[in-house]
Specification:
Helix content is 38%, strand content 21%. The chain has ten helices and eleven strands. The longest helix is centred in the N-terminal third of the chain and has 17 residues. It is elongated and about 75 Å long.
Amino acid sequence: MDWLEALQRLRSTGQPGVLATVSEVRGHSPREAGAKMLVGSSSSWGTIGGGNLEATVIDRAREMMAGGVSAAENVEFSLSEHAVTQHGRQCCGGKVRVLLEPFLSLPTVAVFGVGHVGYELGRVLSRLPMNLYLVDSRAEQLLPERLADVTSGVATVHPVHTPVPDSFLGELPAGAHAFIMSHDHSEDFLLCDAALRRGDLGSVGLIGSKAKWSRFRQKLAAEGYAEAEIGRIQCPIGLPDVTGKAPAVIAVSAAADLLRRLSLPATIQTTLMKRNDSHD
């Protein structure tokens, strides 16, 4: 696949990448200005000239991804036999500048149960850059016409109909955030069990009252989970000082609490700040 298709795939699966572009060439070089290469955590697509130039760019791109660097960088290379290199010599004789543009991984959020609250939560979250999964065992909850207002946002929305939502929870990437709010308390419990068995999710929120959570805690303890493990599930969801039982109120509260947990890239934070400023 080409670098553009690869970038779309990385973004859709929540993986980071760095786009390397030859921005300036002086003298002779393996590739012309405008040549591009996309670097992922384990693969790369396209080429900017091979040799030490390309290998060094790949090394730096992966350092940027590992460090969560969000600002673009310009790097200059001398293609001279006298240049200090790490991956062999290139003797083209020219100089090359390469622009490195990071695309950090987007958060992944899954809403299990797209009833009244799940729908409103999906609407709020879909206005933010993320991979958003809407999972339900009822096909009618995921009809395109019903979700039209959710899928029109900037998030990449994935409606998922499955008779076993807890199995799908096991397929989420590590660090994903899960909201459990199905129409069936038995289904909710299976989802909680699946979430605790994984142990690598970013957060898990369960909708419900204190009475519901008390029953769930007892049942989870009976399954052998320690108190510390059970404590990874938040119930009730949302900010404690935002009260109200209306679906929209619960959704806004839950979304606000999630935003406090997310480590959004600086570029996204800046964009959101500018949008907020424009409405002041």
